[in-house]
Amino acid sequence: MKITINQQVFETIRGKTILDVLKENSFSIPHECDGKCTCGTCVVEITRGSRFLCPIREAEQFHLESKDYPRNHRLACQAIITGEVEVVIP
Ligand code: FES
Questions:
Q1: The CATH number of domain 2-88, selected from 3.10.20.30, 3.30.450.20, 1.10.1470.10, 3.40.50.2300
Q2: What would the pLDDT profile of 5-58 be if each residue is shown by its tens digit?
Q3: What is the torsion angle, in degrees rounded to the nearest 10, for the CA atoms of residue 83, residue 58, residue 6 and residue 85?
Q4: Which of 19, 35, 68, 89 is most buried by its number of CB atoms within 10 A?
Q5: What is the whole-number distance in angstroms between the Cα of residue 66 and the centre of ligand 1?
């Protein structure tokens, strides 16, 4: 399946996180806790296909709300891909 990052299209597979795909394709994004959902630094904007990401869990919601991110933002390390999405790195 396809994932679009900053208007570039990449192939990926169901079950990876957005952070997995960013790292595989050498995108630079903060990820201080490397996916443990403790730092809240790996925020990305979802511009299309948010329904193709896993639901937001409590710890992720806490980070997003504590920094007042709009609803179309996710933590890349927590967002598991199940379909085609478009992502912008802020
Ligand atoms: S890498 Fe720390 S919350 Fe995503």
A1: 3.10.20.30
A2: 999 999 999 999 999 999 999 999 999 999 999 999 999 999 999 999 999 999
A3: 10
A4: 19
A5: 14
